[in-house]
Amino acid sequence: MYVLYVCLEFQRGVAHDVNVSQPSVSNTVKFAVQKIVDKAHTWIHFPHGNDELIAAMEEWQQKYIFPTVIGALDCTQIEIKKIHLGLHGHEYICRKGFASINVQATCNANEIFTSVCAECPGSVHYRRIWKSSSICQLLRESLLILFC
């Protein structure tokens, strides 16, 4: 969705429709996106502690009959432009042959994001992203407490 808003043709169309300049639309998009990013930590929340983890498991059990599940996890390649990738630009070329960022995300039983990690170049394997993620560390600690 964000890609649509940064597209120059989209911004020109909006500018024409509301009778403002394209740079005004661009500035407004930048402002709105920054506000969303600033609030992301309050909207994107992974279950912490026994009560939240148990509640998450109960949602998955009730909705999908998946016992002991607390979330769904996946990685995806988000294509980026090759320009300005610098000295380590080759690290952004994924196994599919295009420049990308490898994004890992989790969601709850209601299909709401509970974590997003968009820090890794496209060549980084999903397993490495998982093993170095704060969610993996949290689960190692929490599940030991939860199931002991």
Structure notes:
There is one protein chain. The chain is built from six helices and three strands. The chain has 148 residues and is α+β, with helices and mostly antiparallel strands. The protein has a three-stranded antiparallel sheet with strand order 1-2-3, with helices on one face. Helix 2 crosses helix 3.
Largest sheet: 3 strands, antiparallel
Helix tally equals 6
Order of helices and strands: HHHHEEEHH
How would you describe the shape?
A: globular
* Spans where pLDDT lies below 50 across 5 or more residues: none
Q: What is the helical fraction, as a range of percent?
A: 40-55%
The Rg value, from CA coordinates, equals 19 Å
| N-C termini distance | 42 Å
Instruction: Provide the domain count.
Output: 2
Look at the helices and sheets and give the structural class. alpha+beta
Q: Indicate the mean pLDDT.
A: 88
Strand composition percent: 15-25%
Kindly state the number of beta strands: 3
Strand order of the main beta sheet, please? 1-2-3
Organism: Asbolus verrucosus
GO molecular function: metal ion binding
Protein name: DDE Tnp 4 domain containing protein
InterPro entries: HARBI1_dom
